[in-house]
Specification:
The structure is a single chain. The chain is of the alpha/beta class. It contains twelve helices and twelve strands. The strands form two sheets. It has an eight-stranded mixed sheet with strand order 6-7-8-3-9-10-12-11, sandwiched between helices. It has a four-stranded antiparallel sheet with strand order 2-1-4-5. Helix 4 crosses helix 5 and helix 7 packs parallel to helix 8.
């Protein structure tokens, strides 16, 4: 059995954005571990902070963002030891050594992530040669194998084509090939199948599962789709307005949700087989202005269980077992509705 060791540890991460003299605490005290051979899904609505969390780990934040507090620990497992990052280090030597080799990222839109003026093969070959001491011929040979492993037909022809000559699904496969070119310990996937049809989505997820099983890769999946979570996740972290409000194994969070927001997300999903007439229960209201947040629980204005106490302070974490955590003072009432 492969070892499920922690490869990235995020501790009390606070990433704030500044604009026109105002501050948006986009990620406000987030902690979790990413383990080898496991898929951790970070789920929540748009604007909840999940993509900012991923960008903080990769140190790919815009100029108006700062890591104000907390720590990200990258466990290399080699002579470099553990690398601790406490402040933004976009182009530091340590981060350059980690990106691509130890940690790779699949972006939401491969057309903007791939360079349009270089062939797909050249870009993958360049990634390999930047991190490993191989010849140009060896890099091309490995690139051909990667494209074949990703299920790209006519890969010997495709290697010399440009991104615009690939379909959306093919570009995403090429992005995964590039991400996996140096066998990274961690693969971060930020909404990797948003623009793809369901058949291609299923193929991409199957491919990622194969990579995880074959290389013991840790996967950090960023998504808003609870269907993706149920399909892919070993562990789940539910984010809302910069906070993780519930986390645990997929079985715990999906099978026995304890936070009203998690419950509401699950209620809003259409169920296969019930037809077009089924009732859906969308979450009422909208997410608050990130520059003008509620003083207490961030979900309180939209919550069916809210009381006056909820508006006073953000609830503390409650551990419901070894792996299941929730931040809600009414979690026992949510449990009654299972």
């Amino acid at each position: 059995m492969k070892n499920k060791e922690t490869v990235i540890s995020v501790k009390n991460l606070k990433t704030f954005f500044y604009s026109d003299g105002r501050c948006n605490p986009a990620v406000n005290g987030v902690s979790f571990d990413v383990k080898s051979g496991k898929t951790l899904c970070v789920v929540g609505e748009s604007g909840c902070g999940k993509s900012v969390t991923a960008s903080s780990i990769m140190q790919l934040l815009p100029n108006n963002a700062r890591i104000e507090e907390g720590e990200i620990v990258y466990k290399t497992g080699d002579s470099r030891g553990d690398i601790h990052i406490e402040k933004l280090d976009r182009n530091g030597k340590e981060m350059r050594s980690l990106r691509g080799k130890d940690i790779a990222m699949i972006f939401q839109d491969p057309m903007t992530a791939l360079n349009p003026v270089y062939t797909v093969g050249w870009q993958i070959e360049e990634m390999i040669r930047n991190h490993e001491n191989v010849t140009k011929e060896e890099a091309r040979k490995r690139t051909l194998k990667l494209l074949a492993d990703m299920g790209i037909p006519d890969h010997e022809k495709r290697i010399d084509q440009y991104p615009h000559e690939f379909s959306g699904g093919m570009r995403q496969r090429a992005m995964i090939a590039m991400a996996m070119s140096c066998n990274p310990k961690v693969l971060i996937a930020d909404e990797p199948t948003t623009a793809l049809d369901v058949t291609i989505q299923a193929q991409i997820f199957e491919l990622m599962e194969e990579l995880k099983e074959k290389h013991n890769t840790a996967i950090l999946m960023i998504t808003h789709d609870m269907g993706v979570v149920s399909e892919m996740a070993d562990e789940v972290a539910v984010m809302y307005m910069g906070n993780i409000i519930e986390s645990g194994t997929a079985k715990e969070v999906l099978g026995s949700p304890k936070h009203p927001y998690t419950e509401a997300l699950l209620r809003s999903i259409p169920i296969l087989g019930r037809g077009k007439g089924q009732d859906l229960n969308p979450i009422r209201g909208v997410t608050p202005d990130p520059f003008d947040r509620p003083s207490g629980c961030q979900f309180e204005p939209r919550c069916d269980y809210a009381t006056k106490e909820c508006s006073n302070r953000m609830p503390d974490e409650v551990n419901l077992g070894k792996t299941h955590m929730v931040r809600c003072i009414k979690y026992q009432e949510v449990s009654k509705n299972e």
